[in-house]
Amino acid sequence: MTSATDIPSPDALPPGGSLRRTPLHALHRELGARLVPFAGYEMPVHYPAGILAEHRQTRIAAGLFDVSHMGQVRLSGPDVVRALERLVPGDIAALAPGRMRYTQFTNAKGGILDDLMVTMGEDHLFLVVNAACKEQDLARLEAGLRDCRIEPLETRALLALQGPAALSVLSRLAPAAARLGFMSGASMNVAGAPAFVTRSGYTGEDGFEISVADAAAEAVARRLLAEPEVAPIGLGARDSLRLEAGLCLYGHDIDEQTTPIEAGLAWSISKRRRAEGGFPGADILRHQLETGVSRRRVGIRLDGRLPAREHCAIAGVNGEGLGEVTSGGFSPGLGTAIAMGYVAAAASAAGTELRLAVRDKALPARVVALPFVPHRYATA
Amino acid sequence: MSETRYTEDHEWIRIEGDLGTIGITDYAQNQLGDVVFVELPEVGRTFAKGDEAAVVESVKAASEIFAPVAGEVVAVNQALVENPALANQDAQGEGWFLRLRIGNAAELGALMDEGAYKAFVEGLA
Questions:
Q1: ipTM > 0.95?
Q2: Domain residues for A75?
Q3: Is the same domain home to A11 and A97?
Q4: Is residue A256 scored above 70 in pLDDT?
Q5: Partner-chain contact B60 A7, CB within 8 Å
Q6: B36 touches chain A (CB under 8 A)
Q7: Residue A66, Cα to own-chain centre: how many angstroms?
Q8: How far is CA A29 from the centre of its chain?
């Protein structure tokens, strides 16, 4: 038996470099995690329960994820909002204090250099960027925000508590969490530790991301895991959860060759930013918004259980080439294989019949609306 | 009387007369994680030793199962197709993949016995 693919990216291991560890590394070991290289870190891909059980746990109760490998950055300075807007198409100026927003770093062609979350603090911006991109993102910020203070928060861990029970669980340890609306954040104590908490996540469920000092991370994680609704969840289920939720994974569903418009992320660019531009690739994105794009990211549901993974060719019913899968796997929620990928715009309407090439087979599939599994974010 | 032999690719073959039943080891299913799909060959197909005989897809990866010895497929485990989780729950029992009529019994000699396989797996840790 030999394995053709695995969840961690092939570029996960830095050449000749040693793997970094998060402050929860010892706890992962103790919990029996299978640790794998991911974006230069040794991370849990799953615990003894396994990916399917961890996925279901997060959908029915709550899961605790260590996402400390992600980059946390604090930006401050008199003109920091306008300065950041020169690098991203998101409407940062429109953010009220405590509110957060999803956006992307773009290049001159409108391609996506990374995607990120931006939260407006009282006197600063708080960014969360992808682990694999954080060095380049910092260099980009340093080059683009010359008069701002850029502080990589290298001694802070990030924990995600996700699932329908997340609110009741976190409210016990941090009553102020119950007052957070979806896509907002605030400083508060969590089990006695000073933390910055946002109501956000990457699973399609209600949930929170908790930024705490490295030194407090294990105690906070243990306290959360002691709650009856909570179990530890690895990167494997994080991937299947976000895929069901139709959320993009950087380096797979979006990259420098794809624009936010092709990726179906135009919702993240406000009317003002479309009109004013002033970010890399603005003219190209405006042109794409006005005249349309030649290919689009779509959701694809397969009839069977056999997963069609990244790079599988997508064809029409007559075999005509339409594009390629960028993420694919088995959906525990639907009981079939699902995928996302780019197809020619003419084939991007929901209901379009497709064939996905897996080994010697052409698997029947069709375009479906995203998300595959309805989001259950807090609406308050 | 049956005897079970193992490959370095983590397949097992249980030998009963001239028939060999093949599956993946408990170590393999643990490495793969939750199995969600298996693809089994048609009865009547013949394989040389080392040919790709079946495919197993887990939530993590696609993997090939190789024929430990040459032979002709005489049966496949339809229950495994319908419930791929059997490969996790009972890898070396109910989770079997296929049964071969062994073509060349001499090839069995190159496979590991249980003790040798155990030592092999321990060496991988």
A1: no
A2: 1-245
A3: yes
A4: yes
A5: yes
A6: yes
A7: 13
A8: 25
**How many whole angstroms separate alpha carbon A229 and alpha carbon A88?**
38
CB-nearest partner of B63 from A2, A7, A51:
A2
Q: Is B52 on the interface with A (CB under 8 A)?
A: no
B65-91 b/e with 16+ CB inside 10 Å = b?
bbbbbbbebeebbeebeeebebbbeeb
Q: Which H or E element spans position B114?
A: helix B114-124
What's the structural domain count of chain A? Answer: 2
pLDDT in tens, B17-40: 999 999 999 999 999 999 999 999
* A84, two tokens: 């950041």
Residue A159 sits in the same domain as residue A306: no
A307–chain B Cβ distance below 8 A for any pair: yes
Residues A31 and A162 in one domain: yes
Binning pLDDT at 50, 70 and 90, where does residue A75 land? very high
Last residue of a domain, one of A187, A216, A245: A245
pLDDT at A6: 47
Return the closest-CA partner of residue B105 out of B68, B60, B62, B61.
B68
Q: A362: exposed, middle or buried (C-beta count within 10 Å: 0-12, 13-18, 19+)?
A: middle
Q: For chain B, how many structural domains are there in total?
A: 1
Report the C-alpha gap between A241 and A246 in whole angstroms: 9
Range of the domain at B84: 3-103
Instruction: Kindly list the residues from chain A whose CB atom is less than 8 angstroms away from the CB atom of residue B52.
Output: none
Mean pLDDT for A108-128 is 97
Q: Kindly give, in sequence order, each residue whose CB lies less than 8 Å from that of residue A317, ignoring residues fewer than 6 positions away.
A: A353, A354, A355
Question: Which spans in A210-257 are helix H?
Answer: 214-225, 235-244
